[in-house]
Design goal:
Elements: E1 4-8, H1 13-22, E2 28-32, H2 48-60, E3 67-77, H3 98-108, E4 118-128, E5 137-147, E6 163-165, E7 170-171, H4 177-183, H5 185-211
Parallel strand pairs: 1-2, 1-3
Antiparallel strand pairs: 3-4, 4-5, 5-6, 6-7
Helix pairs in contact: 4-5
Length: 222
């Protein structure tokens, strides 16, 4: 049976690399919205979950019979009341790049001492088997750290070079991709989501055996 098309609801190259690594051993053919020539939807939700859901449904509608996976994630800084939060990718304005977002973050934290610069990355992942999937799979991950005053490391993307991990004495940008995926908010969420995918697959296999009807590798559609 050929791999099923799985649309990854992102145009972020760094995020797509992480998804490809995290899902490499599953029976999916991954394509991003950009590879399919589909524009990303406007993120109108008021939470990470709402945005992840709308992005996943939009992505699933991008190709016939495709499943989709979407992540909405961001940086929450305690001294800023949880900002930038869901606006992390556009903290400095619509279309802002990483440099502009980081520059605004540093301005907002100017004068804040190190002991008050606690922060976390939060990721909410959603998997849908179809655009109208009534029972999407949802998982969440948190990665605790703090914000430095100057960047360290050349890897990663977004706020990674400023996100300090005290137990490792490294920033997220100083980790290689494999280590980052083991530790990160997105890695945690993905492991939880994979467990749900496995459970759905086992349930579908049991139903197939009971009914004698093929349901597909990842179970029936709602």
């Amino acid at each position: 049976m050929p791999n099923r098309l799985l649309v990854v609801a992102t145009t972020n190259a760094g995020k797509l690399r992480e998804f490809r690594a995290l899902l490499a051993d599953l029976p999916f053919d991954l394509r991003s919205l950009q590879e399919l020539g589909v524009a990303a939807p406007e993120e109108t939700g008021s939470s990470f979950l709402e945005n992840a859901l709308l992005k996943a449904r939009h992505a699933a509608a991008a190709a016939p019979d495709a499943a989709a996976i979407a992540d909405d994630s961001g940086l929450e800084v305690d001294a800023l009341g949880g900002a930038p939060g869901i606006f992390s990718a556009r903290y400095a304005g619509t279309g802002a790049d990483d440099a502009a977002n980081n520059a605004k973050l540093l301005r907002e934290l100017q004068g804040v001492p190190s002991e008050r610069r606690g922060a976390r990355f939060r990721s909410v992942l959603v998997y849908v088997s179809a655009p109208d999937d009534a029972a999407p799979l949802i998982a969440e991950g948190l990665w605790e750290g703090s914000i430095l005053e100057a960047p360290r490391g050349a890897g990663g993307f977004g706020y990674d070079a400023y996100f300090w991990l005290p137990t490792l004495r490294l920033t997220a940008a100083q980790l290689d991709l494999a280590d980052k995926n083991k530790l990160s908010h997105r890695g945690m969420a993905m492991r939880a989501l994979r467990e749900q995918l496995a459970a759905r697959s086992l349930g579908a296999a049991a139903e197939t055996k009971r009914c004698g009807a093929p349901l597909g590798a990842w179970g029936p559609r709602p």
